[in-house]
Design brief:
alpha/beta; two-stranded antiparallel ribbon; 11 helices; globular; single chain; twelve-stranded mixed sheet; 14 strands; 330 residues; TIM Barrel; 2 domains
């Protein structure tokens, strides 16, 4: 297993299969690359199924035991089931999707080897959902969640980005997962450094405090420095709500064990950075191995190393690190 200079073993990878999407969410950062989405038709720059599988086989050589397929919307890939079926058996396979294509495909995904699914659902309100996603697919997403549950892909984790436009719908979503078996909720802190619009950000601690007052049990996950709140019953009985709060959180970054892969076949050591993108060339196994080792070696915690606090307590880019990295790259 590869370990970076900060002692973090790389145990998981997130692989973007496309930057195409049938939604146009106002908070989208496209795996940190910015809004690069193009036409809906398949694109020549997307990694082929063979490329993806070849990368995963190399990652498995290094002890990576989990892969999450993302996008864009990964279910726009008609070969998704093939890719999952060909993923090394040693890897846990999960998927992040907007859910609109799960009806009719959920069972095939399960049979191919998919183990877990996250579905983006930012509100239990049709108008609010349409405003955030800029789509009219509210009912289709609900059908997709039901299809995943019926296929046996439970628990289904609902992803909700918490910011000015969705914060008022958090109580309803929490109640929803507490009352429906097989659902969990992941509240994701809005990241203005990737999406702009800092005025949309809210104090995520307020959400923590609100949940803490209502939780029957609170669990702390040390690996990711996350808290899980069990609402409507203790662990295993109530609904599970987890908060992902990476913004200005050095502890979160210090516990990151994941490398990302863009749809074009570039390795990415950190969600927030694009100055460390590393091409895997023609995607031969020797090239992939070399690139993977290099990206892991160059990983740093975003907050606490790449970003440091100045004399006023504000976060700013660590010029010393950037200059050192530029010298290595030159």
């Amino acid at each position: 297993m590869l370990t970076d200079d900060f002692g973090r073993e790389v145990t998981g990878v997130r692989v973007s299969l496309t930057d195409r999407c049938n939604f146009d969410c106002v908070y989208c950062h496209n795996e940190g690359l910015g809004d690069t989405r193009g036409p809906m038709d398949p694109r020549e720059n997307e990694m082929s199924a063979d490329d993806v599988v070849r990368f995963l086989e190399v990652a498995a050589e290094f002890g990576v035991d989990a892969v999450k397929f993302t996008g864009g919307e990964p279910m726009l890939r008609q070969d998704l089931e093939e890719i999952i079926a060909r993923t090394p058996d040693s890897m846990e396979v999960s998927l992040t999707t907007n859910g609109t294509f799960l009806p009719g495909r959920a069972e095939a995904l399960l049979e191919a080897g998919l183990e877990r699914v996250n579905v983006s659902q930012d509100a239990l309100d049709r108008e609010a959902f349409a405003a955030v996603t800029q789509s009219g697919a509210y009912d289709r997403v609900l059908e997709g969640v039901d299809a995943a549950l019926e296929a046996g892909l439970d628990p289904v984790k609902l992803n909700m980005v918490v910011f000015e436009k969705t914060a008022g719908y958090v109580p309803g979503m929490v109640e929803h997962v507490a009352e429906n078996d097989g659902l969990q909720l992941q509240l994701i802190e809005y990241m203005p450094e990737l999406t702009g619009k800092p005025e949309w950000a809210i104090d995520i601690q307020r959400v923590h405090d609100w949940l803490a007052e209502r939780a029957d049990e609170i669990q702390h996950r040390e690996m990711h420095d996350r808290k899980r709140y069990w609402i409507g019953g203790p662990k295993g009985e109530g609904g599970m709500v987890e908060i992902v709060d990476p913004v200005e959180n050095p502890t979160f970054c210090a516990n990151c064990h994941r490398v990302r892969v863009t749809h074009e076949g570039y390795l990415k050591g950190c969600l927030n950075r694009n100055d460390d993108l590393k091409s895997m060339g023609e995607m031969t196994k020797p090239e992939i191995r070399e690139a993977f080792r290099e990206v892991v070696a160059n990983r740093v915690p975003y907050y606490g190393e790449y970003m440091v606090r100045n004399g006023d307590g504000e976060w700013e880019i660590n010029d010393e690190y950037v200059d050192t990295y530029a010298d290595v790259d030159a």
